[in-house]
Amino acid sequence: MISIPTNRFDTPEIREARKDLAAAFRWSAKLGMHEGTCNHFSVLVPGLSDHYLINPFGLHFSEIRASDLLILDGSGSIVDGQGTVEASAFHIHSSVHRANANAVCVLHTHMPYACAILGTKDGRLELCHQNAARFYGRIAYDYETGGFQGLALDNQEGSRMARDLGDKTILMMECHGPLVTGASVAQAFDNLYYLERAAQVQVLAMSMNRPLALISDEMARLVGGEFVSQAEEYADAHFGSIKRMLDREDANW
């Protein structure tokens, strides 16, 4: 009897990871968190060390399908899929995945409200809404180590970003944009979504020409812990609803 080898890149777990990452792209586009054919999302490949799924260069977030995603190994070689990977995407994502064990999923966008904050001097997410408090103690800011250093076109810049992120969940990059991580695609997307919502409230509140009403550090620490304790349950519910809506719109995504 002849044994037919199976494709190690086509397992139920990998297919689900593809679907999850594609959903994150599609819904980010619906929310206006995309920028042309730039920006990039990745997730570690289930069952394979030092491999991750990432979007190919040249596709808009709104058209990406699960089958379009590439699998890269740690050296940057494409081991499954067709296309190329933007240089900055490889250097950023490979460095962060390698350095941070909690960064199963890494999402980088130039979403407008977070970028508006990062376009101000020493801009940071202020504790003026409970959505900001959910990230208490979980955000790193790269202006504390030099700020904007140009495009991430080499390993040195990718490594700098990974060092600045450290063990935090979010890296806010001055004059650039946020990088958000999570223990799953659902949790990373939930972080991305609520980060932009918190930034939106802050930008709108600052436009009112009145002082911000700030939550105390003590209360923010308490609220942040409460959010973390239920992060997986709420993220899964949020992301599950997104995939159901996408299924109703286009079964082939």
Question: Mind explaining what this structure looks like?
Answer:
The chain has helices spanning 12-30, 87-99, 112-118, 130-133, 155-165, 185-206, 217-229, 231-249; strands at 40-44, 51-54, 70-73, 78-80, 105-108, 139-141, 170-173, 177-182. The chain is an alpha+beta fold. The protein has an eight-stranded mixed β-sheet with strand order 4-3-2-1-5-8-7-6, sandwiched between helices. Strand 7 (170-173) and strand 8 (177-182) form a beta hairpin. The longest helix is centred in the C-terminal third of the chain and has 22 residues, at 185-206. Residues 1-5 have low confidence and may be disordered.
- Tell me the strand order in the biggest sheet: 4-3-2-1-5-8-7-6
- Estimate the helix proportion, in percent: 40-55%
What's the shape? globular
SSE string, helix = H, strand = E?
HEEEEHEHHEHEEHHH
Portion of residues in beta strands equals: 5-15%
Largest sheet: 8 strands, mixed
How far apart the termini lie comes to 38 Å
What is the count of helical runs?
8
Mean pLDDT: 93
Content-based structural category: alpha+beta
- Determine Rg (CA atoms, Å): 18 Å
Number of strands: 8
The stretches of 5 or more residues where confidence is low (pLDDT under 50) are 1-5
Oligomeric grouping of the chains:
single chain
In short:
By secondary structure, this protein is α+β, with helices and mostly antiparallel strands.
List the helices and strands and how they pair.
Elements: H1 12-30, E1 40-44, E2 51-54, E3 70-73, E4 78-80, H2 87-99, E5 105-108, H3 112-118, H4 130-133, E6 139-141, H5 155-165, E7 170-173, E8 177-182, H6 185-206, H7 217-229, H8 231-249
Parallel strand pairs: 6-7
Antiparallel strand pairs: 1-2, 1-5, 2-3, 3-4, 5-8, 7-8
Helix pairs in contact: 1-6, 1-8, 2-5, 3-6, 6-8
